[in-house]
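Hello Y.,

Per our agreement to keep a running log of every chain we model this quarter, I'm adding this entry. I've kept the format consistent with earlier entries: sequence first, then predicted structure.
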Amino acid sequence: MVRPLDRAESAIGHAVQSFRSRARRALHEEHHAARGAVFLESVDLRYRGQSYEINIPLSGNLAGAFRREHRRRYGYASREEPIELVTVRLMVRVPRRVTFPPPPAVVSPSIGRRRVLFDDGWSDVPVFDRGSLPVGFEEEGPAIVAEDHATTVVPPGANFRIQPRGLIEIEVAP
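Predicted structure for the entry above:
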């Protein structure tokens, strides 16, 4: 939508209206409540002839906000150089309820052992299945906690425990 900012108000309004309508349809199709969604509109602006833009929230005096941000980033701002609109953006944030998995029913979370190289040499350490560690489980390192998308290494001299929301807390000795 490249055009002079001083002649872009109508185009910006039409684009935002169109984007909001499409976003509401997409939210409905994906079974999200548009009522709780937060719509964040912004524009990418630049001085005419520049090859980079600055994203500015769509509210208030856009030219003034652009000049302030340009001065903050690049150390100068011009009142004479014309400002161009390059892009109109709409971002939608949908709040969602955070859920935590139920505590595991497995009694023995150890799934094996592995040789691991630490600063003081090789150690044969226990490997724990992350999904099977119950809240309150504690163990002294060295140890490995394995899960599908991550591996946590607990170094020698450290302790780890599983917190109430399933977080792993590692305490490293000084």
